[in-house]
Amino acid sequence: MDHIDRSILRQLQADSSISNQDLAAKVGLSPSPCLRRVRALEASGAIRGYVALVDGESVGAGFRAFVEVRLEKQSEAFSNTFESTILRRDEVLECSFITGDYDYLLKVAVEDITAFHNFMTQVLGRLPGVANTRTMIPVKRIKETTALRIA
Asked: In what residue span(s) does the HTH asnC-type domain sit (predicted)?
């Protein structure tokens, strides 16, 4: 990956709806070579897909919470059940297996505190193997981005 590929990635992270013509102009290429590079970045997996960033408040998912989850024990059965359930839950935006006192960190987006309570009691609270949870509710988002630093 050279500096032009990195420039393409930076531009697409800023605006993935940019036309190939405009992208080519911004990175200093003609349209055909630019499109070939974009296709190569897609084929290599450097570009995994394209998305629209939707405002959570506008669609009834403006309440955010971070939930740490500890399993009763590090067993394959508990982990598999937990992970397969989380993969099916639309309100979970991110789930990471983490180090430290807890096993998983979830980023959850729902309509309001009532919907969050329902998720905690009706979903997480009913999963076998969940020993306990700890929740952090942000009161102000200082920074929120999906763009990765491209060196």
From this structure: 1-64
Tell me what pLDDT residue 25 has. Answer: 98
Class of the CATH-defined domain 57-136:
alpha beta
pLDDT score at 12: 98
What's the whole-model pTM score? 0.88
> How far apart (Å, rounded) are the C-alpha atoms in residues 67 and 92?
10
* pLDDT tier, 47 (very low <50, low <70, confident <90, very high otherwise): very high
Domain ranges of the chain: 3-44, 57-136
* CATH topology identical between 3-44 and 57-136: no
Q: CA 51, CA 15: separation in Å to the nearest integer?
A: 10
Name the CATH topology of 3-44.
Arc Repressor Mutant, subunit A (1.10.10)
In the beta sheet, which residues pair with residue 97? 104
